[in-house]
Amino acid sequence: MGVAAKICGLSTEETITEAIAGGAAYLGFVFYPRSPRAVSPQQAGQLCAIIPPGIARVGLFVDADDRTIEAALEAAPLDILQFHGAETPERVEAARLRFGRKVMKAVAIAGFEDLLGAARYEDIADLLLFDAKPPRRGDALPGGNGLAFDWRLIANRSWRCPWMLSGGLTAELLPEAVRVSGAAAVDVSSGVESRPGVKDPAKIRAFLAAAHAL
User: Fold this and answer.
1) Domain that holds residue 26
2) In angstroms, rounded to a whole number, what is the distance separating the alpha carbons of residues 190 and 181?
3) pLDDT, tens digit, 9 for 90 and up, residues 120-179
4) Could you give the count of Cα atoms lying within 13 Å of 34 in the half-sphere of its Cβ?
5) Which residue in 84, 89, 143, 179 is deepest, having the highest Cβ count within 10 Å?
6) Quick one: CA torsion of 105, 58, 53, 20, rounded to 10 degrees?
7) Separation of CA 37 from chain center
């Protein structure tokens, strides 16, 4: 049956076609201007047009205001809103109600104490995404830094909503990451790139093959 996979930070038809052919369950578009993977609402709309039914289209936002989200939704038919910043449970719930979309909340993990924060979103988010906490430097992004956290921190834990594992994953690391964490779904961005923001079709193919083989 395999592990469900999300390819995030897509920006070209070629890589989207590769992700679709490889059986990705989720395709992600970044609406965060500081990211090398950022796309405009218009770009996302054009790319979403080639995605067939049954594959979830995810928009990633970082502490975005309503107008930013509205602009993305006006141009692109997103199925899920992914919040990857410091959004509070109240903000996530308000966006879910306002925009009528499923919501995913990313939770940055470095130690056990970070899991306590995740519990605040369990009854609000439709999905949780566990990612590595960004490094403490000015140019660090909220995600897509190619860093992993200790997967044992989330092993053998149950949550009241589905969750994904993210952070530093590659085709080579995926089997061990899933074995240790118990993840049924995974998210990758930098792990399928040749350089920041440039997705590699061959790496996408290899990652999805590894996910489906599990």
Assistant:
1) 4-213
2) 20
3) 999 999 999 999 886 565 555 555 556 789 999 999 888 999 999 999 999 999 999 999
4) 13
5) 143
6) -110
7) 12
Set 63, 131, 139, 200: catalytic member: 131
Structurally, the chain folds into a number of domains equal to: 1
Lowest mean pLDDT across 4-13, 20-29, 110-119, 130-139: 130-139
Q: How confident is the model at residue 30 (pLDDT cuts 50, 70, 90)?
A: very high
Q: Is 8 a catalytic residue?
A: yes
Q: How many residues does the chain have?
A: 214
Rounded to an integer, what distance in angstroms lies between the CA atom of residue 59 and that of residue 38?
A: 11
Task: Check residue 140 and give its pLDDT.
Answer: 53
Q: Which residue out of 8, 65, 139, 161 is catalytically annotated?
A: 8
Examine the pLDDT at 60 and tell me if it is beyond 60.
yes
Q: Is 48 a catalytic residue?
A: no
Q: What is the CATH number of the domain that holds 209?
A: 3.20.20.70
